Amino acid sequence: MFSLRQNKNYKNKELLATEFIETPYLLFLDFDGVLHPDFADGIPRDRVFERLPLIENWLRDHLEVTVVLTTAWRAKNDLKKLREYFSPDIQCRIIGVTPQLRKGFEKNGRYYEIKMFLTECGWLDKNYVILDDRAELFPERCEELILTKMNIGVEEEDLIKLTKKLNL
């Protein structure tokens, strides 16, 4: 069902890990406002990644899903560093990052980055969902988007929606 792929036939090799597991489903994942609250004045150290265990446990229950990171943290960290924030058993499931467009924080910007990633990888027919806290970065009726509460992050109800959207 899953296959190990090598990143040699893709146009932009910086988007994907050197080797990655190809699965039927993708989760595009933001950090701020999803894995921890997103506060205008910064994130208290004791709250960084406080919601990460919820996502990791969900991923452990859904092996058919791999993750592509859409977080702004990708501007200052490469994929290897971003993977280190996750538990060792989940790191191999983080297969790539979306490209960074200058319009990334403009209206629909993150959506365009996701579409560019899917195009570059030849995966326009892939089933995917998006966990993000910023509605303005997506079209109004973006069916793939599950919007989290920015001051809380991902909650159980979001994961239930995620499961339903992927028909898992």
Brief characterization of the structure:
With 168 residues, this protein is α/β, with parallel strands linked by helices.
Give your account of this protein's structure.
This protein has helices spanning 52-61, 79-83, 88-91, 109-121, 156-165; strands spanning 3-6, 19-22, 25-29, 65-69, 94-97, 127-132, 145-147. The longest helix has 13 residues, at 109-121. Strand 3 (25-29), helix 1 (52-61) and strand 4 form a beta-alpha-beta unit. Mean pLDDT is 86; it is low at 1-10. A five-stranded parallel sheet has the order 5-4-3-6-7. A two-stranded antiparallel sheet has the order 1-2. By secondary structure, the protein is an alpha/beta fold. It has a single domain (3-165), classed as Rossmann fold, CATH 3.40.50.
